[in-house]
């Protein structure tokens, strides 16, 4: 009985390390929810561990896909190169990777490009530009929860669940021990 209980506890203690072995997104350029104000010709996603060559990403503007010249996985980064700088607007990067352990992960990053145009000649153009900028700020979507935040939340739930199970097992062990 003691050996079985010891084996069960050891197994439960090792589960969080197995679960947390997945590669997570640790950063991106542009970051999730940012407003980019200069030319952007490259999107870089950085992960916690090495990613496989099967990893891909898509860039969407208002539901329309914008093609990358190349999407290159290098060690722990996925780099998407564009043929020309992005125009003003709201963008979504949808990524799918295979981590070093082979598990597929996916997520998306939302950002906005809002480059300041050349100085207009008339005040009418200036007021139009300001009103358009104010409208775009109001319409900016709230960024979705990133995969990193989701995986941290998932890890916390796993740890809490395991702690409760361990406490219940110890309680059951002590209860049965007293009855003998």
UniProtKB/TrEMBL annotation:
Keywords: Copper, Membrane, Metal-binding, Signal, Transmembrane, Transmembrane helix. Residues 127-142 have a biased composition (Basic and acidic residues). Its main location: other. The chain crosses the membrane at residues 156-176. Residues 143-152 have a biased composition (Low complexity). The keyword Signal applies. GO terms for cellular component: cell envelope; periplasmic space; plasma membrane. Pfam families: CopC. One of its GO terms (biological process) is copper ion transport. Residues 121-152 are annotated as: Disordered. Residues 22-113 form the CopC domain. Residues 1-21 form the signal peptide. This is CopC domain-containing protein. It comes from Neobacillus cucumis.
